[in-house]
Hints:
By secondary structure, the protein is of the alpha/beta class. Helices cover 35% and strands 20% of the residues.
Amino acid sequence: xxxxxxxxxxxxxxxxxxxxxxxxxxxxxxxxxxxxxVASGAFAGGSDVLxxxxxxxxxxxxxxxxxxxxxxxxxxLVAVADAFADRLESSLREIKSSEVxxxxxxxxxxxxxxxxxxxxVIDTCDVVLLATPPHFRPQHLRACVEAGRHTFxxxxxxxxxxxxxxxLESCELAGKKGLSVVSGLCWRxxxxxxxxFNRLHNGEIGExxxxxxxxxxxxxxxxRVSRGQCSxxxxxxxxxxxxxxxxxxxxxxxxxxxxxDKLQWAMKDQPPVKASxxxxxxxxxxxxxxxIYDHFSITYEYPGGVKAFARCRHFRNCTNDVTDHFYGxxxxxxxSGDDARIVGRSKAxxxxxxxxxxxxxxxxxxxxxxxxxxxxxxxxxxxxDELFAAIRSGQPINNGLYMTYSSMLAILGRMVAYTGKELTxxxxxxxxxxxxxxxxxxxxxxxxxxxIPGVTPFV
Length: 459
């Protein structure tokens, strides 16, 4: 059924109450069910139609739905959910204009609107695509896993530490149930980048000594609606979700997580010891831009003293830079878009390879060089191809640990920038700061303040 906006389930528990219930004991109890055998083997062999549901009907959700149906010919989209009916309908029109239109079978009774709409999709489907604003990911993922559903989970997976802890538990439960959980951190599914990291991990550039990543871009979409176009503050913030930390995590979490994920990947997904840094608002200072920052500069320190330097900004009319660089004792790995390169050298050749060239400083000639020359499948499609292949084979994929740690890395960066404090990974992960609103209802919620370093406390 299609519910009007006012019919959103205001009586459902808040995310704060929900997260308090997601304990290890819940996980242990759920594992005792027989869901693992059903989840991992029900569709092995590829003869059964997989019913797909979409939760979150924005641009990324619409794209994910097309890619999911493209990944397996024995799939059909049967249910969709969003907070807003107009977003739901525009998404369906877009999906129906694609090459998989013949497998879109969403009738009016399977269009669900409101804060509780995700529940109805989960009840209907075998595979659920989670593409709402990140704030809702922990609650939605937990419901999927408890119901025995395979999931595609867009990045990031949480906006605060309680959400991260919940997702870690959900992914542990998914593993015990034999469910696939595939992450939207798409670079992990790019063939060339995979090969670059395999070479890095195999010691082709020696031991890592420093890491650097940049996500300097023009920014994303402008606020979509004004307050005068909305019936209440909740609607206004939800429609402009990117600009509110409680919904997006700030852009350091929502977008820069792609680059931070590559730092984690290079470090074999071990967490850093601590972080420090700064951030603020220079261009996006108008109140319409909510309470997020437009630039961050964070330093992470890993075990052994290895440091990672991460910067990101959303500045218009400035030079862009979206690249990653990994420095080892024997060479460097550079990643820029689809281009992955390794420039290496042997220790024995180091002295003879250093030449002085005026103001250009020192150059190190390379003895070992590699550059990805193959043709990589679209990484957004590859995510879904591998998800559905795993479901069919009964050999589940679980990206839970890295997708959660990379999200936490981004949250840690936001925490140190907002507070101006140096924080350890353990301190940040144990934080009780819950960014959720008091309740989910179409009412006037508070307008959050912009964080001030040195004033905003660490909670």
